[in-house]
Amino acid sequence: MLALRLARGTHPLVLTRRLLVAAAAAGVGFLLLCTLGYAVGHPAHSSASVLRLLWCALPLAATVQFAVAVARTDPSTRPRPGLSAVGLGPARLTAIAAASTAVTCTLGSLVALLFYLHLRGDITGLPFDGAAAELLAADQPLPLAAALTLLAVLPVVAATAAGLALRPRPAAEAPEGAEKPVPSGLPWGVALVAVGLAVETYAGRGGGDGVPLPGRFDGSPLGVLAGWVLTAVGLAMAGPGLVHGCGRLLQAVRPGATRLLAGRVLMDESRRIGRPLGVVSAVISGTLAAATLYDADRGPTAFGPLTGLGAALVLACTTATLLTAALESKQCRTHTTEALLRLGAPPTVLRTAALMRAGALLAVFLPLTWAVARLAALPLTG
C-alpha cells in the first residue's frame, strides 16, 4: 500500500517512465503467451516451442535492465534526511523500490493477458476480437496455470534485480570527489568481441545444422548465434573502459576548463553510462547485421510480426535504459552543477561540455558499432 501511495504522489515524468516499463512488460508478456499458444497448438513440436521460449529471454532481459534503471532514478526511493526516523531506512526504501517494480511489471503482464485473450476471441465486444484466433490456437483451451506462471516471470525477476541493484551498501572508504579506479573490463571485453567474431566467422563458413530463428528464417548455425552472444557481452564489458578512455582523450594536450570538465565527468560516470552504451552498441550492431542479411538473400518475408515485436522491444528498452542512465548521471551531478553556477561559471560552459561529451562518445562508438556489424555479417553474406 505504501508503494501505491508513493506512486500517486510522484512527478508525471516519473509516472511516464513507469508506464513505459509497463508497456515493455506487456510486450514481453504477449511474446511469452504467443509462445505458449504455439506450444498448445503444436504439441508435436516441443523442441521448436522450447526454442521460441528461449528467444523470449532477450526482450525479457532488456526489459529487466530498463526496469532497474527506472527504479534507480525514482526519487521516492532515494534516501533523504529524516526518513529513517519514521521507519523508512535504506532497507525499507529498497523494498519499496522492488515492490513498485513488481507492481508496474504485473500491470503490464495483465494488459498482455487481456490483449492476448481478446485476439484469441475469448473476450468479445471490442474491435478486432478474435482477429488472430488461428495464429494463437483459439481452438485449443489455454492452460491458465501455465499462462500465469509465464507472466509471473518478469515481475519476479525485475523486482529481484531492482532489490539487488538498490540494496544498502557500506559507505565507501575513499572520500567524496576522489578519483575513481579505472574500469578493468576493457581488455576482457575486447577479447570477448574478438573471440565472438572468430567463432561466428568459423561457424558461418563451416556450415552445419541450423537453429531456426523466430519469424521465417530457415536456420543459422549454432556457432553463429554463440558468436553474436559473445560479441554482445564483450561490448557491454568494454563500454565503461571506452567511456573512461574518451574522458582521458578530452583532457589530453593542454585542455581548457571546458574540456577538463567534460573529460572529468566522463571518467567519473564511465561505469554508470558505459555498460548501457555498450549494450546499445551491441544491439545496433546486431540489428545492422540482421538487416544486411535480410537485404542480401532472405527476401521480404524473412521476418514475422513476433520477430519484429521482439526486436523492437530490445532496441527500445536498451535505448531507454541508456537515456535513463544519462538522467541518473545528471541527477548525481546536481550539487556540482549548482556549485559551479554559484562560482560564476556561465551556463554556456556546461552546455558546451555536454556537447563535447556527446561528440566524443559518438566519435568512438559509431565507428565501432559499424565495424562490428560489418564483421558479423560477412560470414553470413559471403
Automatic annotation (TrEMBL):
UniProt keywords, alphabetically: Membrane, Transmembrane, Transmembrane helix
Domain of life: Bacteria
Keyword Acyltransferase: no
Coiled coil (residue ranges): none
TM regions (residue ranges): 20-40, 52-72, 93-117, 144-166, 186-204, 224-243, 277-294, 306-327, 348-373
Protein name as it appears in the record: Membrane protein
Organism: Streptomyces viridochromogenes
